[in-house]
Design goal:
This protein has a single domain, classed as Rossmann fold (3-Layer(aba) Sandwich), CATH 3.40.50. 56% of the residues lie in helices and 12% in strands. Helix 1 packs parallel to helix 9, helix 2 crosses helix 5 and helix 4 packs across helix 8.
Length: 200
């Protein structure tokens, strides 16, 4: 199957963002990650920092997730919490970008936004080497060696909670994905090579 859309969830420090950007550069297909937040920020006049704060407030509570999803499904946006409004806005922005053609999406439960669309491939990029993740966080993200593990766990927990709060699925459950890549084994270029084949 030729992919039209690739949605990528990734561990912090796995190099997943770098692989996605490299893939976009090679193929000329746009990649949306931070751009989703910026689009929501511009449309709704809310800062990116505030959007990120709302994302961080998501919880991994099953009851919270059911509550949020029920309110969103009810169709009355006035009943949504600020976090719910942000999630709905992000999902709308993803669909808007997707309507423009093939795309690569980073995070933000993009696969959920594109559910029902043809040609969606759900990807998870991990890194089986904690040392490699730690070095990438230190060298590429400018995080101190003392803080690297704490920051990694914080971001992974944020991503896991946000994913669960809005899908009731476990972010780290690899059965939720069509393709799972290990950047410790394949490298960033290798991950991009495999994903590029899906788009050809």
């Amino acid at each position: 199957m030729k992919a039209k859309y690739i949605t990528i969830e990734r561990e912090y420090g796995s190099g997943g963002t770098k692989a996605a950007r490299l893939l976009a550069q090679r193929t000329g297909i746009p990649c949306y990650g931070q751009e989703i937040l910026e689009g929501v920020s511009k449309k709704y006049d809310v800062s990116v920092d505030r959007i990120q704060a709302y994302e961080e407030s998501a919880t991994n509570s099953f009851l919270y997730s059911i509550y949020m999803m029920t309110r969103a499904a009810a169709g009355s946006s006035d009943m949504l919490s600020p976090e719910g409004h942000i999630y709905v806005a992000e999902q709308e922005m993803i669909r808007r970008f997707a309507a423009e053609g093939s795309a690569i999406f980073l995070g933000h439960c993009a696969a959920e936004a594109l559910r029902g669309q043809k040609g969606v491939v759900k990807v998870f990029i991990r890194c089986s080497s904690d040392d490699m993740k730690r070095q990438r966080i230190i060298n590429e993200y400018g995080i101190s060696a003392e803080s690297a593990d704490t920051v990694r766990k914080k971001f992974d927990k944020k991503r896991s909670n946000y994913y669960y709060a809005n899908t009731t699925k476990k972010w780290e459950d690899l059965r939720n994905y069509d393709v799972v890549l290990d950047s410790a084994v394949l490298g960033i270029d290798g991950c991009a090579d495999i994903l590029e084949q899906l788009l050809k």
